[in-house]
Amino acid sequence: MRLAFQAQTVHYKVVMMNWLCNMIVSSLLFFPDEVLVAQPQDLGLESENVTCVTNDGVKLFGWYLPAKNPKATLLLLHGNAGNISTRLDKAKGWVDRGVSVFLIDYRGYGKSEGVITCEMDLYLDGAAALKWLKDDKGIPYPEVIMYGESLGTAPAIEIATQTRLKGIILEVPFVSLLKMAQKHHPWVPLFIARNFQLDNLSKIGKILCPLFIIHGTDDDICPYEMGQRLFAAATQPKDFLTIPGGLHSDLREKGGAAYFDRPYRFLLGDRQ
Predict the structure, then answer these.
(1) pLDDT in tens, 56-97
(2) Looking at CB atoms within 10 Å, which of 26, 79, 97, 194 has the fewest?
(3) Is the pLDDT of residue 35 over 60?
(4) How far apart are CA 247 and CA 244, in angstroms?
(5) Which of the four pLDDT bands, split at 50, 70 and 90, describes residue 217?
């Protein structure tokens, strides 16, 4: 009886410690905003409100932004702050070039339900969005371009290792969460991040489609060197856009037309 009680106590402590570690990592990594600060029509974009459901039953909210006679569809997985409403200008650049865009909020962001508690949640959210494109819009995976921004590069890469897509674009990617933690939170014990590995470097060589990376030389969040390491580890075909003086969140402004045109030509133009 005593042994059974002791075993239950140990199990409870392990569960609580795991939960506490996940909450600490979540508080350091995710900065969701529930307020949508803009609507697609503010930028002259047609849109469809979308609700898709993950395999674990969480309802996610997004916008599908159709282009006229689309050449492809881009699924954008955003970074760790804000929500889909703060990425509308980025989406517009692609819609104006004839590419439909699907913006989706992770659980806990914008109007999406739930909360991110582990690495797998991000992968489930990205997979649900991709499945919605196929099931509800009839868009086959080889016509989808996965676009991962900062945090979003992790689910984008994970999906691209399992699914043959038209291509993948990574903006300001990082090699792993552990390396990011060592840079920004060196006081945090690494063991607490065991449920948030986000190890992009170990996966980048396994992606099943063409790769394009965008990175600024002065990025103080995800260092430029991380993008270079990922590029070196990836297989062909691949290309890299360096934006001199680019920080973490100003690449669209500093990159000018090349920010859109270079990945567009690589995935949909001259290389074809």
Answers:
(1) 999 999 999 999 999 999 999 999 999 999 999 999 999 999
(2) 194
(3) yes
(4) 9
(5) very high
Least confident range from 40-44, 123-127, 192-196, 220-224: namely 192-196
